[in-house]
Amino acid sequence: MEGYFNEVSPELKEKAGKIKLLVTDVDGVLTDGGIIYDNSGMEYKRFNAKDGFIVHPLKKNGVLVGAISGRKSKVVEDRFEELKFDFHYHGIWDKDKKLREILEVLEIAYEEVAYIGDDLIDLPLLKKVGFSVCPFDTLPYIKKEVDFISSFAGGHGVFREVGDLILESKGLLDFVIEKYANK
User: Fold this and answer.
1) For every one of its 183 residues, what pLDDT tens digit does the chain have, with 9 covering 90 and above?
2) pTM of the predicted model, to two decimals?
3) Which residue in 3, 2, 18 sits closest to 108, CA to CA?
4) How many domains does the chain have?
5) Which residues contact 30 (CB under 8 A, 6 or more apart)?
C-alpha cells in the first residue's frame, strides 16, 4: 500500500480501520457553512462533488454512510437522496439521542462510528464515537475534542478525505483507485 496518509499515526489508522458507519453533519462540513436565500425564499447550498464521489466506494466496501443535521433543508435532503446515503435526518438538535437510536437498530457500537462535525451541537458525538473528525476551519475548542483535524475547510473535501482515510486504514483505498484507473 502506497500510504497516502503517512502523517496519520498508526493508532488513528487503527481507529479508522474499525469504522462501519461514517456519519456527518452538513453545514460547515459538507458545505462552507454559508446559507444563501434568494428574494423568493429559495435556499441554495454549494456541495463539493469530491465529497459525493466517495459515497459509493465506501458503501461498496461495507461502510454505511449517514447524516444528522440540525437544520431542515430540502436541497440537503435532495443531495443525500441523490448520493444514496443509507440514512439522513434533518432538524435534529439532540444528535446523540438520534445516533443512539440508529446504532441500536444497526447493531453497531459507538467505537465503530466515525463522525464529522464542526460546532457545539456536534460535541456530544465527537466525544463518544470511535473516530471523531472536524474541518480545518473549525473553532479551537472543537478541534481539541477530536481525533483528526482534516486538512480541508468545510465544504472543500473534508468528507472525501475522511472516506479515503477510512478506506486506506482498511487496506482498500489502493484497490478502489486501481478499479477506477483500469476502467
Assistant:
1) 457 898 999 999 999 999 999 999 999 999 999 999 999 999 999 999 999 999 999 999 999 999 999 999 999 999 999 999 999 999 999 999 999 999 999 999 999 999 999 999 999 999 999 999 999 999 999 999 999 999 999 999 999 999 999 999 999 999 999 999 987
2) 0.96
3) 18
4) 1
5) 24, 47, 48, 51, 67, 79, 154, 155, 158, 159
What gap in Å lies between CA 161 and CA 50, rounded to an integer?
A: 9
- What CATH number does the domain containing 119 carry? 3.40.50.1000
Neighbours of 147 (CB within 10 A): 19
- Residue 3 located in a structural domain: no
Domain carrying residue 88: 10-181
